Amino acid sequence: MQKTILVLGATGMLGAPVARRLKADGFEVRLLARDVAKAQAMFGDGYTFFEGDVTDCASLELASEGCHGVHISIGGASEYRSAENVSNQAPRLGIEQITYVSGSTVREENDGYPMVHQKLMAESAIQECGVPYTIFCPTWPMEQLPRFVRDGRAMLIGDLPAAYHWFAADDFAAMVSNAFQREAAANKRLYVHGPEAITMKAALERYCKTLHPEIKGVSAMPLFLAKVMASVTGNQMLKFAADLMAYFKQVGEPGDPTEANQILGAPTTTLDAWIAQRKQPVTA
Question: Rounded CA gap, 177 and 5, in Å?
Fold first, then answer.
């Protein structure tokens, strides 16, 4: 019998590849979206769409009924609430598996950072509900690199000397799909690292060299300057970015991906291969 998986956060950077991979692997895929028309335009045929929100228990329950599993790929203010709602409903609805996207730096010692606190609470809700789970703790996805390029400039905030094992979202999607197919993934907390360790500056330079050759270098705004500018201008986005980079400078990249690689298959896409996939063909 074909398993049905509900994907929450399916229109997001990591959620969309998961939804597509699950469908390609033979699952029946349901998507819960506030804007169903937008989701339908994004995914096309072959999916079942439900209108609603993860914070609305009634619409979440309707979308979840009859599902084998639920995949949670929600960030921001709704993250804990979505995990809590799924966890509260799952045992009653007969959900047999929950997968959740946490983060590689999500640890008790980092609980003082708001993003980590949300994720720790979400993890606890999932782990305590009694339904088998797989919690993914990924490092930086390669799909984040385009976000550092704006208005013809490549800009980082702060100096992050650590090398990160960048992974491709499609590789991650394959791991999530495998988690729904392999019993060994049950009740595991797994770190996701890509095949190469590359500093953020070096990764962005390689990305720009091929996809933005007009950009001749990567600039770095000192953290203290970014924080001052955010305070003076009231720019909340800049403040968030500065705080985030200060956090990552402090914590680096923890975690061992060995168990995840053994159970689910290791990510294999290198940064250069990922960049090559996105290179636009030259037309006359």
Answer: 10
Phi and psi dihedrals of 80, rounded to 5?
A: -65, -40
Asked if residues 76 and 65 have their Cβ atoms less than 8 Å apart, the reply is no
Residue 277 lies in a domain: no
pTM for this prediction: 0.93
What Cα–Cα distance (Å) separates residue 88 from each residue in 8, 48, 98, 129?
A: 15, 23, 12, 7
User: 47 to each of 10, 31, 40, 94, how far by Cα in Å?
Assistant: 11, 7, 8, 21
Rounded to an integer, what distance in angstroms lies between the CA atom of residue 163 and that of residue 189? 22
Closest C-alpha to 141, from 8, 18, 271, 278: 271
Backbone angles phi, psi at 70, to 5 degrees: -130, 130
Tokens linked to 96: 């047999």
Q: What is the domain extent for residue 29? A: 4-141+167-193+254-267
Summarised one tens digit per residue, pLDDT across range 228-265 is 888 889 888 888 888 888 888 889 899 999 999 999 99
- What's the CATH number where 14 sits? 3.40.50.720
Query: Could you identify the residue written with the tokens 């970015």?
Result: 241
Indicate whether 247 belongs to any domain.
Answer: no
- pLDDT, tens digit, 9 for 90 and up, residues 90-130: 999 999 999 999 999 999 999 999 899 999 999 999 999 99
